[in-house]
């Protein structure tokens, strides 16, 4: 059991007086450290992950975990009142690691005593336990990365622990605050999701709550939940009693074990999500401990209610062992905001902030909950002629009148004192049905069990037809929007948009959608042509179209092209439409600020704030502009108000003279924002700071790109960019994964100034490949090699792109051999080159002869090697190899080590051992039944859950 430190003496005194306390004190936890992040960019853009895209670039990928723990000190924020104690780990995505009910002495959130990652996360490591806050996709891309953190003491005596970061892909700002109030067991989660970019993006939010389980743990949903759905609504079943096979388990054939609300009945990894409810709560209850927790959130914005389990069977128990030493098993009771399924993404507009709250509270003694709000949770059931009722509350109440009514009659009445840990419970004879009763708990809560009519099952999702089979252009556009919005991993929106244009070359919606894609990929001229064509159609009968989006996008494109005057006019036109009034006003204010038109900038930024006062970009610009006018008092007031809104905004912290962030990528964002509003000296200084900062492990290394961006800014300002470019060419290159249009513009500018910059060619290739411009990426990588770049990363990247874009496996193999000549001990190069040889038809003997034994440190290569040994009749050696070391499976790739073991045992005449694999394989038989990813005709199932064969060389078959 993980032991927590006591509160410091001064705070302990406040706690004893009923106050909320918080402090920062590290805790030492046995930790299985993640392996070294890969120095090669892993794009994985055809990877299926949690039902959506598993693309990971520009994050470096981590594919191994230490097999022995070390004692590691973790930064920890402790938050406590008289009823609840919480521990938040800002270095692990700001997750709640401990949620402890002090009254019951019970961990209502699963407390994992070790940090033991498994290869479940988007970029590799992921840990179980506590509460993980997943955004902008699931699992949180930054789940194993640090957040900035802050303790806020409220005027109402509440205390909030804030954690904040910029998401690794679109650089949106996610911030969550975990709040306790005096005298209350209610845990409040206040979230602020801020799109600090100029483009519309998509996101989801799921709070992933873990609860330790056993045979007597029961999850509960509202009583009007009759149906639950799998990911993407691929399948549905009745709830709580399954009425059909689900995840390959024939529940109706298992009387007494057909209820999905009991962990003990679910034998395979299983998700189920509520499809509809009129209630706002759900949770779980431990019947052995007599304690549990409730989640409550306004269903109008937070409809998502889900359970996930690895399954109560050897397969699930093996995964539990990968994630803990002695704790577990657990289930996840996830709560979604703006989403009720996974994947289920929502849009967030440029500059928009979405704020919402979620609540959890522990409760005791009353059994599963039938109705709940933020004040109380109640149970009311009738069984065997006995009515059982209970009420648990989140704060103390004296003299509460509890009444059990049957119509106008009072069947029972009590006046009670209740408090967290001291619920009211009662039993009394009753000869009717539960729905005849109504429980009234003072003014806190009323509940009468429903008598619901059966509802028909909801429809399952269907695969969209091929573009040529879609009846209308309207539906083509809807399908394309859905695929883009949900980040579909295997079906591109492009064919649908292209089909719409084939039918009507002037289709404005398709033209704008394609122009956005071109803009985000850095194809500015192409984007401009598309958006101009869309505007031409829109203005065919009306010179002032009601939709401002094309004009707004045109402004963004023109800024990138350096045509700032034309961009200003386009933004001004776009804000005739209310939807873009705010975003366009801010863009105009930025252009004004960068051109020293302070008065005009102030007018425009105030216009932006009039339409969205939460936009931190506008708030920070206002502070800068007020200071330029020497209005120091007004600037100080604006700064103080804004910092109260968000104490962790990096640019506001910088303007307040505080250290903006410990994350170099956030410092890079801050420098770029300053550059965009004409704060040249500050931007240059921050770029320098980033160039000298130590990278965050697992987050990539932005030092080189900070220097290229600095050089680009210097050139635009008429300064000498040469020294910065020279520093960039000498800066670290491993994991320097450029991403986004600011990096793109800086690298293009560097090559316009010096086409012989091999470093810039190599980095631009990385960025272009990640943006889907694969042929162009290959040209830049080959040019870097021509210029003398012999870095194994560049050679490998060129090999990968050669194979994927041209299908020329022979040239790809040659490039891999060149890379291996430079880095002969690099196990990834050996694995990837072997996979390419397999797809090119090389014989098992030839493949076996070239791979050094040292390269078998990789699980995937060792498994492949074992298979080759079997192929050449050396099966006994294969068995010995598979027994010689531990293996770590990754979610979605289960079963490979087991399959290799069984094949080797059978081939070596050891059939009796085949069904008894060693624990070191990390797997057991009984993996879940999942949809076949690749159909017999070679097409990919729209609902595929895993597609490992397409991760490296899509389109190159064996």
TrEMBL record:
Residues 454-473, 909-933 are annotated as: Disordered. InterPro entries: DUF5107, TPR-like_helical_dom_sf, TPR_rpt. Residues 55-362 form the DUF5107 domain. Gene3D superfamilies: Tetratricopeptide repeat domain (1.25.40.10). Signal peptide: none annotated. It comes from the Bacteria. Residues 454-467 have a biased composition (Pro residues). TPR repeats lie at residues 758-791. Keywords: TPR repeat. This is DUF5107 domain-containing protein. The lineage of its organism: Bacteria, Bacillati, Actinomycetota, Actinomycetes, Micrococcales.
